[in-house]
Structures are given as C-alpha cells and as structure tokens.
C-alpha cells in the first residue's frame, strides 16, 4: 500500500508486488464453487423430498434410460481426464497441446449436453413435462441446472481457447485455465450425485 | 481471519506460484478409480444384483461418497496445505452445510408427513360427521396426500394455499 501511495502521481501498477494474497483468485473461485455447492445441496434436498411424488404420472423407472445416463457419465468422466491432460500440456507450456486437449474436452462436453437435451426432449414427448408432477419438477430443475452449468462451462472453454490462441499461455490465461479446470472437475463431482441419487436410485 | 497468513510471502511472488504442479499419474490413477467406482453402481442397478432396496441405496451412497473423495484428491488436487489450509477449511464448511441442508430437509419434511393429522378413519370422533363427504376422497387419495386432504375438510377455515398443494 505504501508503495503505491508514494507513486500515486504517475499511475503506475506493479502487479508482481501488489499486496494480493498468494493465489487469491484460486481461493476466491473455490469459494464460489462451494457456494454453488449449496445451490445443488438445496436442489438435491428438494429432489429427496419430492422425487417420489409422481401424482399418478410416470415414474423414474418408466422414464429413465440408464444406458443413456451411462453414456453421458462416460462422456463427462472422459472430459475430466482430457481436461487434466490439457493441464499437463499447459504445465509443459505447450500451447497447441493445451488447445488440442481443450478442444477434445469441449467436444465431450458438447456430446454430454447433446445427449441430455435429447433425453429431455424424449421425456417431454412422452407427455411428461415439468408441470406433470413434483417428481418431474424437481428432476428437470436439478438435472437442468447441472446441464446449464456444463453449457456455460462450454462457452467459457471456447472463449478461453480463443484467448490462449491469441495471447498464448500468459499468466492471466493460466489463471483462467486453473479456474475453469476447477469448475469442470466440480461439475463432474456434482454429476456423481446426479447419476447416483437421481437416476440409479430413481429407477429402483 | 489472519491477514498475515495470506499476505505472507508476497515479496517473493512469481508466476509459477499460481501453478499447482500436477502429474499425469494423478489423473490416470484418478480416472481408473473413478471408472471402477462408476461401473460398479451402474452394474448393481442395471443387472439387478441386490434385491433388498435399502441395501442397494446404502451401497450406492457409499460408492458416490468414495468417488467424490477420489475426484477431490486426484482431479481437484485437494489437500490440507494449499492456500494455507483455507481451501480445505472452506470445503469442510461447505460439506457441513450440505449435510445439514440435506439431512435437515429430509428429516423435517418426512417427519412432517408422519406428524400430519391422521387420516379421518383413525379418529373416531371426526369420522362420523365427515364420513359422507370424505368417503369418495379416501380411496382415491394416496399415502402422502391423504392426511392433507382430510385436514382441509376437517377445518374448512384453513387458508386456500393448501388446496394447490394437494396434487
């Protein structure tokens, strides 16, 4: 602080010496993820209460296709691995390798969202909409919120790929990549809860 | 919150500090464990291996918890040391909060069901005057809905917000 006030006249910044906490962004982003965790906790609790209130409508066992869910789980898990490989390429300062694995991650994420949209459309066309029963309301809200997170993650991924393409693996891009990595792996963690508590237990 | 812990060492800050060093072994190990921990629950349910529902639910829950830990350790590189322990601290807080939210919600909501006014057939005093009106409702109403439907009839002055809730 004292440094900057001395040179206040010339409007000079010293990013390397600012009194920022070490890795402040990572910790801050982690705190965001933990707050996101609370959103999902609320949605999972809602699902826990309403997940079997079918109101005479279709049940999970009738609507869910576990084969589809298994494929989607594989897509997301593989994308976690490929994101990890992108991080390893980043560590080696290999721009093209990073971009390549990020692209693979993006395609897997896109496949995940695609299959989920297909699944939702399929369920909708059987006449089971979000208004049919408390079970379907909580199902579409929980799984849809997760799907939206993945979709926004994809947008972020594409934007970051453009940034890395333009500026290379500069410090700011590395920081962004670290945050996106946390975001992506976090979504995979939430998906564990979704496929276990919504799909696998939903068809029992 | 001690500002010293966080600010300490900013003098020798350089770019590599932002980078957690990760190894391919971490990702490979994590991935293999995650695949195993995913395939078994799917197999248990799809092949209908265990007949007892409670057992299946417990086993599935256990696999999910273990897999979450695996992802935390191998993909998110959690340990007690990064960020001077603040990451771990916030995670523990979030986990406690999540457990309270889930356990508290389920506990309260399912106990509310149990503590609702019993179905009219269980209360001799109520069943007589209400019988002609309630009779057609009773067979159609299902487990959780029944107490609430009866409550509305027993107390006509009840606020209207209950009516939308019944279905």
UniProtKB/TrEMBL annotation, chain A:
Highest taxon, organism lineage: Bacteria
Main location: membrane
Compartment(s) where it occurs, according to its Swiss-Prot or TrEMBL record: Cell membrane
InterPro entries: Cyt_c/ubiquinol_Oxase_su3 (IPR024791), Cyt_c_oxidase-like_su3 (IPR000298), Cyt_c_oxidase_su3-like_sf (IPR035973), Cyt_c_oxidase_su3_a-hlx (IPR013833), Cyt_c_ubiqinol_oxidase_su3 (IPR014206), Ubiquinol_oxase_su3_dom (IPR033946)
Sequence ranges of Basic and acidic residues compositional bias: 11-20
Region (Disordered): 1-20
CDD domains in the cross-refs: Ubiquinol_oxidase_III (cd02863)
Keyword tags: Cell membrane, Electron transport, Membrane, Oxidoreductase, Transmembrane, Transmembrane helix, Transport
Domain Heme-copper oxidase subunit III family profile, first and last residues per copy: 1-203
SUPFAM superfamilies: Cytochrome c oxidase subunit III-like
Gene3D superfamilies attached to this UniProt entry: Cytochrome c oxidase, subunit III, four-helix bundle
UniProt key word Cell membrane: yes
Membrane topology per record: Multi-pass membrane protein
Transmembrane residue ranges: 29-49, 69-88, 100-118, 138-162, 183-202
Similarity field: Belongs to the cytochrome c oxidase subunit 3 family.
Protein task: Cytochrome bo(3) ubiquinol terminal oxidase is the component of the aerobic respiratory chain of E.coli that predominates when cells are grown at high aeration. Has proton pump activity across the membrane in addition to electron transfer, pumping 2 protons/electron.
Quaternary structure (record): Heterooctamer of two A chains, two B chains, two C chains and two D chains.
Protein name: Cytochrome bo(3) ubiquinol oxidase subunit 3
Species, as recorded: Comamonas avium
Gene this chain is encoded by: cyoC
Automatic annotation (TrEMBL), chain B:
Stretches that traverse the bilayer: 27-45, 57-76, 88-110
Annotated stretches, region: Disordered: 144-167
InterPro entries: Cyt_c_oxidase_su4_prok, Cyt_o_ubiqinol_oxidase_su4, Cytochrome_c_oxidase_bac_sub4
Bilayer disposition of the protein: Multi-pass membrane protein
Keywords carried by this UniProt record: Cell membrane, Electron transport, Membrane, Oxidoreductase, Transmembrane, Transmembrane helix, Transport
Compositional bias per record (Low complexity), positions renumbered to this chain: 144-161
Pfam families (UniProt xref): COX4_pro (PF03626)
Localization per Swiss-Prot or TrEMBL: Cell membrane
Family: Belongs to the cytochrome c oxidase bacterial subunit 4 family.
Quaternary structure, from the entry: Heterooctamer of two A chains, two B chains, two C chains and two D chains.
Job of this protein: Cytochrome bo(3) ubiquinol terminal oxidase is the component of the aerobic respiratory chain of E.coli that predominates when cells are grown at high aeration. Has proton pump activity across the membrane in addition to electron transfer, pumping 2 protons/electron.
UniProt name for this protein: Cytochrome bo(3) ubiquinol oxidase subunit 4
Organism: Comamonas avium
């Amino acid at each position: 602080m004292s440094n900057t006030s001395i040179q206040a006249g010339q409007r000079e910044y010293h990013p390397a010496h600012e009194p920022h906490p070490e890795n402040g962004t990572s910790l801050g982003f982690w705190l965001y993820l933990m707050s996101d965790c609370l959103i999902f906790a609320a949605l999972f609790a809602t699902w826990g209460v309403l997940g079997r209130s079918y109101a005479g409508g279709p049940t999970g066992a009738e609507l869910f296709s576990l084969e589809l869910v298994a494929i989607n789980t594989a897509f997301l898990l593989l994308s976690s691995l490929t994101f990890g490989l992108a991080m390893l390429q980043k560590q080696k300062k290999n721009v093209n390798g990073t971009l390549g694995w990020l692209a693979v991650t993006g395609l897997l994420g896109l496949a995940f969202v695609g299959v989920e949209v297909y699944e939702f459309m399929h369920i909708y066309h059987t006449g089971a909409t979000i208004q049919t029963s408390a079970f379907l309301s909580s199902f579409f809200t929980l799984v849809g919120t997760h799907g939206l997170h993945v979709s926004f993650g994809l947008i972020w991924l594409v934007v970051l790929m453009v940034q890395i393409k333009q500026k290379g693996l500069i410090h700011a891009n590395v920081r962004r990549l670290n945050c996106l990595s946390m975001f992506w792996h976090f979504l995979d963690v939430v998906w564990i809860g979704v496929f276990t508590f919504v799909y696998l237990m939903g068809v029992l | 919150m001690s500002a010293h812990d966080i600010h300490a060492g900013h003098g020798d800050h350089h770019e590599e500090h932002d980078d957690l060093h990760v190894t391919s072994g971490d990702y490979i190990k994590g991935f293999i464990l995650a695949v195993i921990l995913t395939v078994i629950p799917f197999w248990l349910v799809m092949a209908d291996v265990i007949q007892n529902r409670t057992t299946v639910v417990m086993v599935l829950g256990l696999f999910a918890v273990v897999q979450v830990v695996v992802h935390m350790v191998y993909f998110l590189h959690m340990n007690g040391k990064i960020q001077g322990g603040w990451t771990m601290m916030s995670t523990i807080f979030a986990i406690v909060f999540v457990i309270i939210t889930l356990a508290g919600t389920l506990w309260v909501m399912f106990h509310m069901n149990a503590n609702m006014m019993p179905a009219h057939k269980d209360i001799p005093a109520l069943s007589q005057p209400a019988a002609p009106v309630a009779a057609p409702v009773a067979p159609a109403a299902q487990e959780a809905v029944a107490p609430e439907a009866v409550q509305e009839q027993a107390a006509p002055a009840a606020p209207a917000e209950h009516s939308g809730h019944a279905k």
